[in-house]
User: Fold Phytoene synthase from Caulobacter zeae.
Amino acid sequence: MSALEADIEAPDLEAQSREAIQKGSKSFAAAAALFDAQTRADAEMLYAWCRHCDDVIDGQTLGHGMSPVADAPARLAALYAQTRSALAGETPTDPVFAAFQTVALRRGIPERYALDMIDGFSMDVEGRTYETLEDLLAYCWGVAGVVGAMMAIVMGVPASDLATLRRAQDLGLGFQLTNIARDIVEDARNDRVYVPRAWLAELNLPVEQLTDPARRADVAALARRLVEAAEPYYASARWGLRDLPVRSAWAIAAARGVYRQIGLDVVSAGPAAWDERVVVSGRMKAWRALEGGIVALRSATLDRLGAVPERPAMWSKI
Assistant:
């Protein structure tokens, strides 16, 4: 037994990671329950590390309660160092990095993907602004698109299968554009503005007015544009399901349906979308999970009878 195994037993890592996902993302936790046992454990351990890195930079706990961080550059440097150390096989002292090391080494997650995720958080530390949608998508890659690629590898997709990883990337991009649409006002209150500045200029909407209730109709128009921008990525991601095991395809199809529903609900609510946080009801989540099962079965059967459509000419890092 190694020193790591003696200090931090794998079941403890899995239990702590499962707790993190259940508190940090009820939607993803519900989808992850559809995985087989090993894939679920690995996906939850990867999620726990992603969640931890985000929390460290945003001064929050399990995705809640964002607050200013005075030592963000030092925190960022520590994340890079701890991640490189874990990937090099050195013994982590932090259970989150021990969990990440376990799944990264078992599944062969490339170092460049792990570091690309932290590069995404570095954009927040730098206070990066995004002039165009293409600029924003480069950020979305770091904090979500690359997470989709890593999750696909956890599900058994070879790191060399770039075609399937591009579809997984697309799902992450769709997720992040949806999150940005839902959280425009909350993010602006925390001095985070992800909406392309060119879009704000078109509406003559200064950054400082994003939180002004009098401009909610304009904010709703921006959210609709973000949700519409996400749609081609959700459509592309659907064609990656056929290359996953059926249970994994079901889990991802369910998550895809739930997150896409968030965007649809934001658009449907219009200016009222920021009166309270938009969440998907339990009944709708159940429906999207059922629908995901049907989509997964179709992907494993009928979709295999024909050729996969070419991925549209969209932004891609992979």
